[in-house]
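Exam revision sheet. Question 4 asks you to relate a sequence to its structure. Input first:
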Amino acid sequence: MKQKNGLKQRKRLKMAEKIEPPLPEVESIAVAIVEVEPMGDESPSQDEIAVLAYSYWEARGCKNGSPEEDWFRAERELRSRGATQKA
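Answer key, C-alpha coordinates:
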Protein backbone atom coordinates (compact mmCIF):
# COMPACT_ATOMS: atom_id res chain seq x y z
CA MET A 1 0.00 0.00 0.00
CA LYS A 2 2.88 2.34 0.76
CA GLN A 3 4.27 1.89 -2.74
CA LYS A 4 0.95 2.86 -4.31
CA ASN A 5 0.78 6.06 -2.22
CA GLY A 6 4.36 6.88 -3.22
CA LEU A 7 3.49 6.43 -6.91
CA LYS A 8 0.41 8.61 -6.55
CA GLN A 9 2.48 11.35 -4.92
CA ARG A 10 5.07 11.21 -7.70
CA LYS A 11 2.34 11.37 -10.35
CA ARG A 12 0.79 14.39 -8.63
CA LEU A 13 4.16 16.13 -8.53
CA LYS A 14 4.79 15.44 -12.20
CA MET A 15 1.34 16.75 -13.13
CA ALA A 16 1.85 19.88 -11.01
CA GLU A 17 5.17 20.49 -12.71
CA LYS A 18 3.51 20.30 -16.13
CA ILE A 19 0.76 22.77 -15.18
CA GLU A 20 3.10 25.51 -13.95
CA PRO A 21 3.94 28.05 -16.65
CA PRO A 22 7.58 28.28 -17.71
CA LEU A 23 9.71 31.08 -16.33
CA PRO A 24 9.79 34.18 -18.55
CA GLU A 25 12.93 34.75 -20.55
CA VAL A 26 15.18 37.56 -19.47
CA GLU A 27 15.23 40.50 -21.87
CA SER A 28 18.58 41.89 -22.85
CA ILE A 29 19.20 45.59 -22.41
CA ALA A 30 21.60 47.58 -24.55
CA VAL A 31 23.63 50.23 -22.78
CA ALA A 32 25.47 53.05 -24.47
CA ILE A 33 28.51 54.64 -22.88
CA VAL A 34 28.88 58.28 -23.77
CA GLU A 35 31.94 60.37 -23.10
CA VAL A 36 31.08 63.78 -21.73
CA GLU A 37 33.38 66.75 -21.96
CA PRO A 38 33.59 68.97 -18.89
CA MET A 39 31.49 72.08 -19.35
CA GLY A 40 33.37 75.30 -18.98
CA ASP A 41 32.27 78.93 -19.27
CA GLU A 42 32.23 78.61 -23.07
CA SER A 43 29.43 76.02 -23.06
CA PRO A 44 26.40 77.08 -25.11
CA SER A 45 23.05 77.70 -23.46
CA GLN A 46 20.17 75.27 -23.90
CA ASP A 47 18.29 77.91 -25.87
CA GLU A 48 21.16 78.27 -28.34
CA ILE A 49 21.38 74.50 -28.76
CA ALA A 50 17.60 74.20 -29.20
CA VAL A 51 17.50 76.89 -31.91
CA LEU A 52 20.33 75.29 -33.90
CA ALA A 53 18.90 71.76 -33.47
CA TYR A 54 15.53 73.02 -34.70
CA SER A 55 17.21 74.54 -37.76
CA TYR A 56 18.71 71.12 -38.60
CA TRP A 57 15.23 69.60 -38.46
CA GLU A 58 13.83 72.36 -40.68
CA ALA A 59 16.71 71.90 -43.16
CA ARG A 60 15.62 68.25 -43.55
CA GLY A 61 12.16 69.44 -44.51
CA CYS A 62 10.70 68.76 -41.05
CA LYS A 63 10.87 65.01 -41.67
CA ASN A 64 12.50 62.00 -40.03
CA GLY A 65 15.76 62.22 -38.16
CA SER A 66 16.39 62.06 -34.46
CA PRO A 67 15.80 65.02 -32.11
CA GLU A 68 18.53 63.71 -29.83
CA GLU A 69 21.02 63.48 -32.67
CA ASP A 70 20.11 67.02 -33.78
CA TRP A 71 20.64 68.21 -30.21
CA PHE A 72 24.06 66.58 -29.87
CA ARG A 73 25.10 67.83 -33.32
CA ALA A 74 24.08 71.39 -32.43
CA GLU A 75 25.87 71.17 -29.10
CA ARG A 76 29.08 69.96 -30.77
CA GLU A 77 28.84 72.69 -33.42
CA LEU A 78 28.35 75.46 -30.87
CA ARG A 79 31.15 74.16 -28.66
CA SER A 80 33.56 74.05 -31.60
CA ARG A 81 32.55 77.59 -32.58
CA GLY A 82 33.21 78.74 -29.01
CA ALA A 83 36.61 77.02 -28.93
CA THR A 84 37.55 78.59 -32.30
CA GLN A 85 36.50 82.07 -31.19
CA LYS A 86 38.37 81.67 -27.90
CA ALA A 87 41.62 80.69 -29.68
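Marking note for examiners. Residues 67-86 form the longest helix (20 residues).
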